[in-house]
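Field reference: "sequence" (input) and "structure" (output). Example, DUF2851 family protein:
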Amino acid sequence: MKEDFLHYVWKFQKFDVGGICTSNGEILHIKNPGSHNQNSGPDFFNAQIELDGQLWAGNVEIHLKSSDWYAHAHETDVAYDNVILHVVWEHDAEIYRKDGSAIPTFILKKHVPKTTQERYQKLFSKEKKWINCENDFASIDEFTAENWLERLYLERLQRKEKILLKELKETQNHWESLLFRMLCKNFGLKVNGDSFFSVAKSIDFSVVKKCSQERQDLEALLMGQAGLLEGDTEDWYFKTLKTRYGYLKHKFQLDNANVIAPKFFRLRPPNFPTVRLAQFAMLYFEQPSLFSKVISGKNLEAFYELFNVTGSEYWDKHYNFGIGSLQRKKRVSKSLMDLLVINTIIPIKFCYAVQQGRDISDEILELVAKISSEENAIVKKFNSLKKISKSAGHSQALLHLKTEYCDKNRCLQCAIGSSIIGTVAQPEVRRIMEN
């Protein structure tokens, strides 16, 4: 038994509240369980109870055993002077405030249904499982699942917002520069994301704006900063870009000492860093007002049109410098477009709107619902338990669910875990999601 369970039971009143008394026989009526406090101090603030007809307002403290009050030295802490009720699982000691006055005690163990206890113990059993609720996951009703995934997705966006704001601060609040950095990172995908991000951060965006007027200048800038123009080769295009980069490096005093070298190993040729940087250069050459179009874009088709770019003609016949290939336009694939929208466009649109005091949650949810679900190990495992991921919004929410709730055993803060422990009424689902 853990205190988190007692917090859950008290917060949602998952016990028989009729005909209850304190340990001293005082008739207890719970008017308001209070607001759950996640920080230091009593567990619930601003509760209201009635003892033998007398109304009390104050705080509630919860422990597994009454004696924990003294084990935690609450009797010497003024923050606990306003506790009006001590809720415990087992009562093994009388409790007094700092001034010597007794604190009423309510023994929760006597009133929690046995089925609720059994479901809790089953959920947190030591049996090795992928997630605690995997044996019951399939039984979750569609309403609970859909609404909780929606809430989780917005929670994930809020977490990404914090990361973006930190990065925005480094750019001196330059939103176009932020978009450039995050897009460049995601063009590198998982293998070269860190490398491409370091490339983007090594270039002041004012330099990018100047070079974007000439496609070869921008391509040379990116390739050169990535270290892809070092050494010698007889390839004419390599020599052309290297010469251009040498001029740009001197002119803008560029430094790539802190850039992470991109990788080719185990990548399919279409994902080679040379091809991806060429596509990225073409994007900024063809879309000089990219940030404004990202912010104003309302539908998926508009973003697909933005990202519908290819590398320059040289890359039609090459995947790397000096190495020929069958002629083929190296166009940004739909799967990459989807990832760019999921991981860059939507988070930046969301973050920008929040900073302007606008709520575009409905617009974002509608947009992400039209993108196909991602395929990865976590999503596949959830789908094997219950076919649940039907869009990118769902798959993103499931990633957040696994890492932030399942892996951290936060089942009692999860609408799914709570519904398994006890039958969850719809108002209760909403309260869990709001908190």
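Confidence is low (pLDDT under 50) at residues 423-429.
The chain has three domains: 3-112, 114-170+373-435, 173-368.
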